[in-house]
Amino acid sequence: MRIQICPIKRLYQILAETGTVKAGAVLSSSSDINDAKLQGISYVFRQYEDLDYESPGRSFSREDAKAFADFLTEQETPIDTLYCCCDAGESRSPAVAAAVMRYLGMDDMAIWQNPRYHPNMLVFVMLTEALGAAVSDEEIDLLLYTNQKAFRDAITG
Q1: Domains of the chain as residue ranges with CATH
Q2: Nearest 5 degrees, angle CA 50-CA 107-CA 24?
Q3: Does the pTM of the predicted model rise above 0.85?
Protein backbone atom coordinates (compact mmCIF):
# COMPACT_ATOMS: atom_id res chain seq x y z
CA MET A 1 0.00 0.00 0.00
CA ARG A 2 1.21 3.47 -0.88
CA ILE A 3 0.43 6.23 1.62
CA GLN A 4 0.17 9.82 0.46
CA ILE A 5 -0.30 12.87 2.66
CA CYS A 6 -1.96 15.88 1.10
CA PRO A 7 -4.51 18.63 1.61
CA ILE A 8 -8.00 17.62 0.49
CA LYS A 9 -7.93 20.18 -2.32
CA ARG A 10 -4.76 18.53 -3.69
CA LEU A 11 -6.55 15.17 -3.69
CA TYR A 12 -9.34 16.73 -5.73
CA GLN A 13 -6.69 17.93 -8.24
CA ILE A 14 -5.08 14.48 -8.39
CA LEU A 15 -8.43 12.86 -9.07
CA ALA A 16 -9.32 15.46 -11.72
CA GLU A 17 -5.99 14.88 -13.48
CA THR A 18 -5.88 11.09 -13.28
CA GLY A 19 -9.53 10.10 -13.07
CA THR A 20 -10.88 7.74 -10.46
CA VAL A 21 -8.19 5.65 -8.82
CA LYS A 22 -8.50 2.51 -6.77
CA ALA A 23 -7.87 4.06 -3.39
CA GLY A 24 -9.10 4.57 0.09
CA ALA A 25 -9.03 8.04 1.56
CA VAL A 26 -8.87 8.73 5.26
CA LEU A 27 -10.16 12.26 5.53
CA SER A 28 -9.19 13.68 8.87
CA SER A 29 -10.89 17.03 8.70
CA SER A 30 -11.79 19.54 6.09
CA SER A 31 -14.19 22.37 5.62
CA ASP A 32 -14.32 21.54 1.92
CA ILE A 33 -15.60 17.98 1.55
CA ASN A 34 -17.17 17.32 -1.80
CA ASP A 35 -18.70 13.84 -2.10
CA ALA A 36 -19.07 14.21 -5.87
CA LYS A 37 -15.31 14.75 -6.28
CA LEU A 38 -14.61 11.63 -4.21
CA GLN A 39 -17.04 9.43 -6.13
CA GLY A 40 -15.68 5.92 -6.57
CA ILE A 41 -13.30 6.16 -3.62
CA SER A 42 -13.88 4.45 -0.33
CA TYR A 43 -13.36 6.91 2.50
CA VAL A 44 -14.12 7.84 6.07
CA PHE A 45 -14.59 11.44 7.13
CA ARG A 46 -14.44 12.76 10.66
CA GLN A 47 -14.42 16.48 11.27
CA TYR A 48 -12.42 17.77 14.23
CA GLU A 49 -10.17 20.69 15.05
CA ASP A 50 -6.38 20.54 14.98
CA LEU A 51 -5.89 20.38 18.75
CA ASP A 52 -3.10 18.47 20.47
CA TYR A 53 -5.09 18.01 23.64
CA GLU A 54 -8.62 17.08 24.54
CA SER A 55 -10.68 20.21 25.06
CA PRO A 56 -14.26 21.46 25.06
CA GLY A 57 -13.79 22.12 21.32
CA ARG A 58 -14.16 19.33 18.79
CA SER A 59 -10.82 17.58 19.26
CA PHE A 60 -9.99 14.10 17.95
CA SER A 61 -11.80 11.49 20.03
CA ARG A 62 -11.66 7.76 20.69
CA GLU A 63 -14.75 7.46 18.47
CA ASP A 64 -12.85 9.13 15.62
CA ALA A 65 -9.91 6.78 16.15
CA LYS A 66 -12.25 3.78 16.12
CA ALA A 67 -13.91 4.98 12.90
CA PHE A 68 -10.49 5.22 11.19
CA ALA A 69 -9.36 1.86 12.58
CA ASP A 70 -12.59 0.16 11.51
CA PHE A 71 -12.29 1.69 8.04
CA LEU A 72 -8.76 0.31 7.63
CA THR A 73 -9.41 -3.14 9.06
CA GLU A 74 -12.76 -3.75 7.36
CA GLN A 75 -11.79 -3.02 3.74
CA GLU A 76 -12.97 -5.86 1.50
CA THR A 77 -10.67 -4.99 -1.39
CA PRO A 78 -7.02 -4.02 -1.00
CA ILE A 79 -6.24 -0.31 -1.00
CA ASP A 80 -3.60 0.68 -3.57
CA THR A 81 -3.11 4.22 -2.32
CA LEU A 82 -4.25 5.54 1.01
CA TYR A 83 -4.65 9.32 0.94
CA CYS A 84 -4.43 10.89 4.38
CA CYS A 85 -5.99 14.32 4.00
CA CYS A 86 -6.88 17.35 6.04
CA ASP A 87 -7.05 21.06 5.26
CA ALA A 88 -3.31 21.78 4.98
CA GLY A 89 -1.68 18.33 5.02
CA GLU A 90 0.71 19.34 7.79
CA SER A 91 -0.57 18.12 11.17
CA ARG A 92 -3.63 15.87 11.31
CA SER A 93 -2.98 13.93 8.11
CA PRO A 94 0.72 13.23 8.85
CA ALA A 95 -0.38 11.94 12.27
CA VAL A 96 -2.90 9.61 10.62
CA ALA A 97 -0.29 8.48 8.08
CA ALA A 98 2.33 7.79 10.77
CA ALA A 99 -0.16 5.78 12.85
CA VAL A 100 -1.26 3.74 9.83
CA MET A 101 2.36 3.11 8.85
CA ARG A 102 3.05 1.82 12.38
CA TYR A 103 0.03 -0.44 12.16
CA LEU A 104 1.22 -1.84 8.81
CA GLY A 105 4.79 -2.35 10.07
CA MET A 106 6.18 0.37 7.82
CA ASP A 107 8.90 2.84 8.82
CA ASP A 108 7.28 6.19 9.67
CA MET A 109 10.48 8.06 10.55
CA ALA A 110 10.42 10.07 7.29
CA ILE A 111 7.30 11.81 8.59
CA TRP A 112 8.94 12.75 11.89
CA GLN A 113 12.13 13.92 10.15
CA ASN A 114 10.27 16.13 7.68
CA PRO A 115 10.26 19.76 8.90
CA ARG A 116 7.11 20.45 6.88
CA TYR A 117 5.11 18.03 9.02
CA HIS A 118 4.05 18.58 12.62
CA PRO A 119 2.03 15.44 13.44
CA ASN A 120 -0.82 16.05 15.83
CA MET A 121 0.14 13.93 18.83
CA LEU A 122 -3.43 13.46 20.10
CA VAL A 123 -4.41 11.99 16.72
CA PHE A 124 -1.25 9.85 16.52
CA VAL A 125 -1.54 8.44 20.05
CA MET A 126 -5.27 7.69 19.92
CA LEU A 127 -5.10 6.15 16.45
CA THR A 128 -2.09 3.94 17.23
CA GLU A 129 -3.98 2.72 20.32
CA ALA A 130 -7.14 2.02 18.29
CA LEU A 131 -5.09 0.08 15.72
CA GLY A 132 -3.31 -1.96 18.39
CA ALA A 133 0.05 -0.35 17.62
CA ALA A 134 0.39 1.91 20.66
CA VAL A 135 3.75 3.55 21.36
CA SER A 136 5.44 4.09 24.70
CA ASP A 137 5.80 7.49 26.34
CA GLU A 138 9.56 7.31 25.78
CA GLU A 139 9.11 6.68 22.07
CA ILE A 140 6.63 9.56 21.82
CA ASP A 141 9.22 11.82 23.44
CA LEU A 142 11.82 10.66 20.90
CA LEU A 143 9.46 11.25 17.97
CA LEU A 144 8.64 14.74 19.21
CA TYR A 145 12.32 15.52 19.69
CA THR A 146 13.11 14.23 16.18
CA ASN A 147 10.35 16.35 14.65
CA GLN A 148 11.26 19.50 16.58
CA LYS A 149 14.95 19.05 15.69
CA ALA A 150 14.09 18.69 11.99
CA PHE A 151 12.12 21.93 12.18
CA ARG A 152 14.90 23.80 14.04
CA ASP A 153 17.52 22.52 11.59
CA ALA A 154 15.43 23.66 8.64
CA ILE A 155 15.06 27.14 10.10
CA THR A 156 18.69 27.58 11.12
CA GLY A 157 20.03 26.02 7.93
Answers
A1: 2-156 (3.90.190)
A2: 60
A3: yes
